[in-house]
Each structure stands twice: as structure tokens, then as C-alpha cells.
Amino acid sequence: MKRLNFYLGALTLMAVVMMTAPEAKAQEDNNRDEIGRIVRGPYMTNRFGDNWFIGVGGGINLLLLDQYTPAIGPSIDANFGKWFTPSIGMRAGYQGIFTNFENQRFGYMYVHGDFLWNFSDAVSGYKQTRFWDFVPYLHAGYYRSYGMQDSDFLDNEIAAGAGLLHNLRLSNRLDLFIDMKAIVVNGRAVGLNGAAVVPSVTAGLAVNLGLPGFARAATVIEGIELVNAERVDALETAMAALEIANIALANDTQKLSKKNKALQKENTNLKDTLATRPSYTDFFNAMEPAVLFFEIGKTELGEKELKHLDFFAQSLLTQADKLTKLNVTLMGSADSNTGTMARNQMISQARSQYVYDLLTQKYGISPDRLVMKSEVVKATEKPEMSRAVILSF
To answer: 200: domain range?
Structure first.
């Protein structure tokens, strides 16, 4: 009967706390949109270092020991955890108690992990400035009792259970918490048969680490939309400027098209004119090197050869200049049948220089277009053919 009363007492405590759940929604006052609907996520994923918390507190634990005799003692409660979303979080904790029972020290330690569900944020929407958050959770971990002498319940056990966490906001960084939990453990850990329920109530302070709070994705999207609107305005302005530039380019294109037609017409006329002129290729293919002959030992041309040079300079060379500027090579030569090599070399150079002077001074040919060379030809049967200046192109 005593064990039944113990369990009923623990369940009653849990039921009383659960009755406070509807009050979580009643405290909402600034968490709705313009038509009164509760604003919920989605929310942006926080960084790894954000939304961590450390909580330290104390309270009382109720134990039923030998013959279901109740033992009440102080409890120490320490937790470290993180909120992954406004309504989902996890924490790791340590809870311990020391008490006197029949003049003996008795205690237990419970190292546990908790899965947290923020009922207030899940049902009424996330609100960073909410004063009271109602957080049910499940827990499981390692339970060890110790201290009693000559007893058979110094066992290490796996325990689990449920709890209710009340977070009361003091500031962005500081919360007051009230933690009510029930630990379900094998009864041998507390000297009972079957399962045992160990209820506890602790209170303390929790410090929020990193960046507290969550950014709603809708808010971020609104900011992006605002930036996009500004970009759209800038793009529209740029498009208007491009349209004006395109109109100007179209006008320029039309003007250039007219000029192009005029140039095409002029080009056609030039082709017709050139078609009536002698062919450039045919003319130069017909031209062959000109030869001016000298008397033996002479470095000046006779009257007949001067006529030949005059014809070359005023007729052939002038006609060629109408098509392009020609460069002329003057090759002076002398035969080696008579005289020494030195004298013959001097004569060949003098003959080339003589024709060079006539072309530049008498006929106005630019010196840049003339190249002078000289040579002495080996002895031949017709040495008179080697006493000359050859003009080639």
C-alpha cells in the first residue's frame, strides 16, 4: 500500500504541472501577424556556437528507503545543452543528493541526457521575449546509489523518465529555471523490488551562450526581397539607358550604311577605271632588264646609248611609277680580257656611278630607289658584251 501511495504521489505531481501547460499560450501578446495568426517558422539554422546554455541549481529530492520510509534531502542539478531550433534541444546533466537516514549518509548520482521539446514555441510560435517557456522532456542515463552500510542496494543502474522544465526569462543571457522530473529506475537501487520512481524539484539559473535567439527565414527573405527590389530598380534604370544608347547606335548604323553604299559605288567606279588601264601584272612581266653598253676603257655612254637611257627613264620607268615605285639595281661591269683586275674593277664602279648620277640628277630619280653594284666578268670570246651597266628591277 505504501508503494502504491508513493507512485500515486509522483503521478499527482506530474499531473499538477501538466495542468499549467495551457497557460503557456495565454501569455502570448506580440507573436501574431496582421490578421491575428500565430507566426511560426521556418527558421534559419543557427551557427554551431549559438544557443548554448549552462544551468546550475538546487532543490529537494524525495526517496523511499527501508520499509518505504520517506527521506527528503537537498539535490544538486547541473546541465549543459543547446537549442537546435526554437522548439528542439538537447542537454547533458548531472543530479545528486545527500541525506541522513537512520544516522547514515545516503545519496545517489544520476548522469543523464535529455531530449527537450519547447511546448510554448511549438504551439504558440517562437518568441524570443516570452517570459515563460514550458518545456517537457524525456531523459535517460546512468544511476548510482551509495552511502548505506550493510545494504544490498549499492547497484549501478540504467534509469529513464520524463520531466517538465520551466524557463523564466530574466534577460537575453539569463533565465530562471524550475525543473521537475521523475526518474524511473530498478527498485534494487533504492532497496525496493520492481521499479521505483524518484521525483525531484530543482530551481536555479541558466546562462545563455553564443548568439541567443533564432532568425525567422521569412524575415531573411523579406530582407533579400528588399535588396532585390533595389537591384531591380537599378537594372530598370540601366535598361532605360541601354535603350537610349541602342537608339543612338541605330541612327549611327543608318548613317554608316549610307556611307558604305557611297563607298561601294566609288569602289565600283574605280574598278571600271582600272579596267581600262594596262594590267599591272602584264606590264611588269613584259619589262626586262635594260643594258647600256660602253666603249672599251670608257666610263661614259655614247650618244646612241644615252638615247636608250632617256627612253628607259622617261617612258618605261615613268609608266611603271604610275602603278608602283620601283627600285632599280645598277650593275656596272667590265671584261677581264684586257687590263688589270684593279683597273677593270675601277671601271665597272665608275660606269655604275655614271648611270646613277644621270638618273638622280637629270631624271630626278630618288637615290633611295637605286642600288649600285659592280663586277668584273671573266674573259670571253665577246668581251664587248661585258662592258655595260645592267638596269634590273
So the answer is: 2-215
